[in-house]
Amino acid sequence: MINLISVIVPVYNGENYIRCCIESIINQSYRDIELILVNDGSTDDSGQICSEYGLSDSRIRVINTQNNGPAAARNIGIENSRGGFIFFIDSDDLLEINALDLLVQSYHQTRADVIVGDFKIENHNCGLSSEEVFFFPGNKLLVKQDIVQYTRMYLKKPTGYSIFIYTWAKLFRSSIIKDNSIYFDTNLRIFEDIAFVFKYLKFSNSAYYVKKHIYKYFIDNNFGSAGMKIYENPLGYKLALKIIGEFLKDNGLDEAIIERELGHARISFTIRTMVRFFMFNGNVGLKDVYGLISNMVNDQDIRNSLRFYTPSKGDSRALPVLIKLKLILPIMLVCKLKASQWHKKRAAK
After folding, report:
1. Quick one: how far is CA 100 from the chain centroid?
2. 168: which DSSP letter?
3. How far apart are CA 154 and CA 110, in angstroms?
4. Is-contact 240 194, C-beta < 8 A?
5. By residue range, what is the domain housing residue 23?
6. What is the pLDDT of residues 303-315, one digit of tens each?
């Protein structure tokens, strides 16, 4: 099973997209795969579709569970996987036909502990054009110190250095995951990818980046599902950042430096989360948003982090002041304005 890739797909009410996702996996040029479809209590026809494919291809296994969220579904996939490698894909995304072949070849060439492919951002409703973004100008091997430095750059500018914040488009070694009991935190509905990746990197010595778009990451015009997640545990980033801090500490970074850099990132994430409350179309009223923001500005970790925030070009300077003063309504007005500007920018692309 050394070269077998276990492809894990959490499925929840994805009847509109799951067929295309499955087809992109089973038609890979690399044939030595097992596809684990974890039907996470779907109430539409997703389960039936998965079962049909399971009967038609011996490489497919379908596991039906009660709805517990994507983190729990991925953990079930990990526990039932048999491959030497693990690859995660969301049920509404797609793979390029040679994606897994390219990742496996790169592993055998470099023996890196994680192989990272690049991705395109697409829109299901054709309202946005593809975004062509590459992490590096060419293929790149990152040793441990490179990973540490890149992580610190991410803490300084979370929107600019995001190679390690997604689990998809990456080929993980199963032995590292299972030998060290690395699983997704089921208490997180967002930011769970960051927590998982940095738990993994703790036991990794290298990463290899392949400058090739192997993965199509799809978003919807209304951002409905993504939007609802942000309301469920808006402070989830605190745990993700804590795990990043543990990773940096394990690699010898001074604790005072870690505290400063995590503090800055904590405020950056706080601001981004507050703005995102106004970016999505959900069923959450302004009164609820007021309560969420009030909880955030009164959170002691966030208040202690304000002194470490050092905005760079494009970062908000007004919101940290408003957070310090606990001015909830002005915070909401500024966030709503920033969200409106973001939507206009996206629509113009």
Report:
1. 19
2. B
3. 25
4. yes
5. 5-219
6. 999 999 999 888 8
